[in-house]
Amino acid sequence: MAAGMELRVESLAKQFGGLRVFSEVTFSLEPGGLMGVIGPNGAGKTTLINVISGRQAPSDGHVLLDGRDVTGKPAHALSRLGVARSFQQTNIFRSVSVRENISRAVRFGQRGVQPGLDRLLSEFGLTERLDEQSDKLPYGLQKMLGLVMAFATRPSVLLLDEPAAGLERGERSRIDAFVQHVREAAGCSVLIVEHDMDLIRRLCPRVLVLDAGAVLADGAPAEVLARPDVIAAYLGDAEAEAA
Amino acid sequence: MHGRPAGLIRRLGGAEIAAVAIFIVAFAIPISTKSVLVYSVLNQVLVGVVATFSVWIMLRMNLLSFATPAFMAIGGYTVAIAGRYDITDAFLLTAGAFIMPALVAVPLGALVLRLRGTYFVLVTFVLSQIMQLVLFETPGLTGGSNGIAGIPPGTLLGTELASNQQVLLFACGLALLATLITALLTRYFRQHFAAIEENEILAESLGLVVWRYKALGFVVSAGVAGLAGYSLVNMLLTAHPSSFDSITAVDFIAYTIVGGRASILGPVVGSSLLIYATNLFGTHGQYAQGLYGVLIMVVILAARGGIVGTIGTLLRRRP
User: Is A75:A106 a contact under the CB 8 Å cutoff?
Assistant: First the structure.
């Protein structure tokens, strides 16, 4: 079993030219831990995942995996070290079958076949659709296929970028099942960026709030989501005062 | 056969086997006829197909390359310059025509493969333009605007390839070699190239070392273009800058699009049809270019996936 790894982010910053997306972001996620990242649109959540996963280079700061500095390593290298990610939009190979999608994830990841993969495919109703072209699947299943592909690379740290976005309310329980499965079957450390507060409350024992490119709060959801500054960041000052 | 080569050949699909078979059958043409017209058209087709394979390899990764004429020039001039030193062994020249452009492609690839889309297209076009400049401005090496004429005929196992028939048979051999290289590369790395073509970002996030496959494709594509350059120079016994004009890249791209980019048979069919059409329309003087353009437009409008792609779709739809 590929056990979870500790993910440490130290004073991480990203800017594009003169535009600062975030700075001084520091947190750690223990092996097998689960943490949510929330924040209003434009807070830098997706960019944070892009930087941690190697899609974009940081402007400053460090990313450490079990104490090893992996800052600035490219996405493929981090994937092979055990950092996998999902994307906000469905991100699958649309012109090929579900089976081929899974096969590519296993082959490109080069970390062997993920135990528990069959059970996950079956749980999401993908087993009987393995030979269907993936763009013929309903949107919800395409989204789940994207998540399963990230899991199929046998990650130790899994970064989920708005996994519930675009899913119908009834479909969102699949995300709960997915997160539970990857932690139980593979011991993955999981970081979830999400706007769905119910999902964050249900799943995450800890939540980090990003606002205007800085860490606003970090702690248990009940505490953090009750803070006036967090409410203000989401709803604006007037509503916060009313609250 | 045992081991890796046998494994590679077993991986070839129907289209790859058909392409190889076409070039094996092509050997029969120069043997069965002495027609000058047939020789001329077949020679052009063989050069065109090999050059188009070079474009097609890059298109497998969604990269539209205009660098093919530059690499053809390197392959062609390698052979021409070797001729000055009385190096005429066909095996040696074939190796040189493949390896020299492939070596040049290594540092070039490191620079240009960072680019995507329009930027890649523009930079590869500029590479071909720079190559033209180099050919014209280095007369000591390339003969400048005069090129290198009077290249000695090649020799194959001690036999001089002097007659038209021998030259054409050798061109068939080069085309067969280029087909095998292209087929083995694109088939062996089919999943990798297809993933890069469709969704490079996803492929990389899953762990695929995208730059490695792009570099491999670029280097082999350059080598294959070099073989086309050798074939062209061997036919003309002259290496001249005008034979490697950067605008000829447009023809190779048109051959690929018209034939179909989804299968290795696309470049074969597209090159054969359009080169034959060029020769046919050539008899209509001033209308030739217009007729050629109309043909390309008709095929593209009527068959979006190219000729081979559309035939494949129709066959799959049959009950």
Answer: no
